[in-house]
């Protein structure tokens, strides 16, 4: 697999079983550590939040993950990025976020996201220029200008 093979396509209802399993595989440990619920109902609610903004990360016909983001006039928001554990560490998330950041730079808008405390993804976000702007009991709110 090389970078040029990674594509995004809109999520469809047929993707929901994959997305549910992906969410459990990538988020359960982080949620438990943060004291957040990991029950099935909560996972389904989060999975369906802004579903029209969900993109399946693919390599050919293989589903590798989820990249959910939306654009508003004054700022863009990364809602979720989840890559299957077997494909993590290959730069996929960095590439996808980097492409979105380049588009945001071209549009002259900042990008924000939220990350659970204890999630190692914060290191990636900091490398990409995100800075801490606020905290809650369980998460960091980050922004890149």
As laid out across the biggest beta sheet, the strand order is 1-2-3-4-5-7-6
State the total count of DSSP E strands: 7
By helix and strand content, what is the structural category?
A: alpha+beta
Q: How many individual helices? A: 4
Enter the CATH topology name: Aminopeptidase
Query: What's the rounded overall pLDDT mean?
Result: 94
Profile the largest sheet.
7 strands, mixed
* Percentage of residues in helical conformation: 25-40%
Please report which band the strand proportion falls in: under 5%, 5-15%, 15-25%, 25-35%, 35-45% or over 45%: 25-35%
**CATH superfamily name?**
Gcn5-related N-acetyltransferase (GNAT)
Low-pLDDT sequence parts: none
**Helix and strand string, N-terminal first?**
EHHEEEHEHEE
Distance between the first and last residues' Cα: 32 Å
Overall CATH architecture: 3-Layer(aba) Sandwich
| Shape summary | globular
CATH class wording: Alpha Beta
Round the Cα radius of gyration to an integer and report it. Answer: 15 Å
| Count of the separate structural domains | 1
């Amino acid at each position: 697999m090389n970078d040029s093979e990674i594509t995004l396509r809109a999520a469809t209802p047929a993707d929901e079983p994959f997305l549910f399993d992906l969410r459990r595989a990538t988020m359960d440990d982080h949620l438990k550590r943060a004291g957040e619920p990991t029950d099935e109902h909560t996972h389904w609610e989060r999975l369906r939040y802004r579903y029209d903004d969900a993109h399946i990360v693919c390599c050919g016909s293989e589903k590798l993950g989820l990249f959910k983001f939306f654009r508003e006039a004054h700022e863009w928001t990364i809602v979720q990025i989840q890559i299957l554990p077997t494909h993590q560490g290959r730069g996929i998330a960095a590439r996808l976020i980097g492409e979105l950041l380049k588009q945001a730079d071209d549009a002259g808008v900042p990008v924000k996201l939220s990350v659970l405390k204890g999630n190692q993804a914060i290191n990636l976000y900091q490398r990409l220029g995100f800075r801490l702007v606020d905290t809650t009991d369980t998460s960091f709110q980050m922004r890149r200008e």
